[in-house]
Amino acid sequence: MKEPQAASGAAHSIFALPYVRAIAPYLPGKPIEELARELGLDPASIIKLASNENPFGIPDSAQRAIVACASEAGRYPDGNSHALKELLAERLDIAPEWLTIGSGSNDILEMAASALLAPGTSCVYSQYSFAVYAIATQARGARAIVVPAARGLGHDTAAMAAAISPDTKLLYFANPNNPTGTFVEGPELSSFLEQVPARVLVVLDEAYNEYLPPELCYDSLAWVRRFPNVLVCRTFSKAYGLAGLRVGYCIAQPEITELLNRVRMPFNVSAVAQAAACAALRDDAFLRRSYEINRGELLALTSELQALGLDVIPSFANFVLMRVGPAAKVYQELLRRGVIVRPVANYDLPEWLRVTVGLPHENQRFLEALAAALRTVGHATQAAGK
Length: 386
What we know:
The protein has helices at 9-15, 18-21, 32-39, 60-69, 82-92, 105-116, 131-139, 157-163, 186-195, 220-226, 254-263, 271-282, 284-307, 327-336, 360-377, 380-383; strands spanning 47-48, 99-102, 122-126, 143-147, 168-174, 201-205, 230-235, 248-251, 311-313, 319-323, 339-340, 342-343, 352-356. By secondary structure, the chain is α/β, with parallel strands linked by helices. Strands 2-8-7-6-5-3-4 form a seven-stranded mixed β-sheet, with helices on both faces. It has a four-stranded antiparallel β-sheet with strand order 9-10-13-12, covered by helices on one side. It has a two-stranded parallel sheet with strand order 1-11. Helix 10 links the parallel strand 6 and strand 7 (230-235). Helix 4 runs antiparallel to helix 12 (271-282), helix 6 (105-116) crosses helix 11 (254-263) and helix 14 (327-336) crosses helix 15.
């Protein structure tokens, strides 16, 4: 029997929405296994500092919870994530009805876009902010209002408030921001929220919130209680070490959570992920250890990068953005040495690389590889014409 002919590109275009076809897909950090295959390297010799993962990996407490519930994986999970919501509600001193659980915080970002954006609407976010904001906006055919970054690549809150238009329905604000690591302090952010019209939902993306030093922490849940249009989004992927299980959540007033649940995918978080998140949330010692090692190594890594003559954006997260000049070449040299970092040319930062803060021996290995890579391709400051 003759196989049917594949449809031509022209035929395919009939069925594709033009704004979907124009999306530049999200590019994740290179997996260890992929680099090992490409260069014939031993996977055990490779260090990955590309995706802002917790270098301690998954907590032992979460691993035990996974084993305990593995036998139930043949059944659908609790579609309402009841146990996790109850535990979060107790920890955060809020009602469970104020919570939505997602498959990573990325799922929450997409839910907000699905609920509010469509052709004829707009979404505001800052230049150099998380790539998913642009993807989620474009996938709904909405107009992106990208606000130029402030000096130092951070959010310009005054410009963002001024950029809101009559058709704006959604505003994304990452704090600390990825990929820059920049941070807007509480008083400035509170003042900004007061300027946002009540008809615009503000998604305050706090994926790296647990890495903030105590003196910079603010009560974002007080803003959720005060402003019905504020949603705080968090994740278990970073400080809690559950990146591979995909669990996130958000806090908002019930009118917003009910709206999100209308577009939320059924059974969006597996039973294993829910059990692991509950265990990780109770593991205060693991979270404290994750914060402490990150804080010390972040400061040390920043200092060493500056000693190499590199421009470094002061970071408040678990990664550092550094200007190395010919970033694509430096990145390739690092790969040859078995070190994976993150190029950020897709953020219009072609001279910069982002590196996750690892364990002390991983950071030392990276620094040695970076120094060698810079010698190979020419010192970054010279390449940048300084």
